[in-house]
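Give me the 3D structure for 4-hydroxy-4-methyl-2-oxoglutarate aldolase.
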Amino acid sequence: MTESFSTADLVDEHGPSLRVCDTQFRQFGKLTAFTGRVRTVQCYQDNGLVKQLLNSHGDGCVLVVDGGGSLHTALTGDLIAKAAVDNGWAGLVLNGAVRDSATLATLPIGIKALGTNPRKSAKDAEGVVDEPVSFGGVTFHPGDVLYSDEDGVVLLPGTASSE
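Predicted structure for 4-hydroxy-4-methyl-2-oxoglutarate aldolase (163 residues):
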């Protein structure tokens, strides 16, 4: 989705119905502000499912990946992020690490992650897709609308969300 917004203004406008993620992410990707409907992956040091999803049509969605907060391996790098751009994903929010950060900064996509690690992850596609994931004091439900900018990540309930 392309629209102008400020997460601080959204907090003021929506009050407690807006969920605010407390995780202090680092900004990667060329786009510092992005929004879209949430898709989710839960995995641990294995980006097989992340790669599969980002190589499919994104329809302007944001992929939220709960990697358990691990910084031991990267859950995405330049090739997977480029596939996300090519397939119409709006952004990525990773509770984990990325690699190829210099290249990620040139790609027209929003990417937030905890940090970087040049080590590749496993490719076994172990994990869960499109189930609620929780970190940073909030639960990300598939279908929620995520807004991310320089101030943080916030969520409005989607039609299927119950939080």
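The first strand starts at residue 19 and ends at 21. Let me know if you want a second pass.
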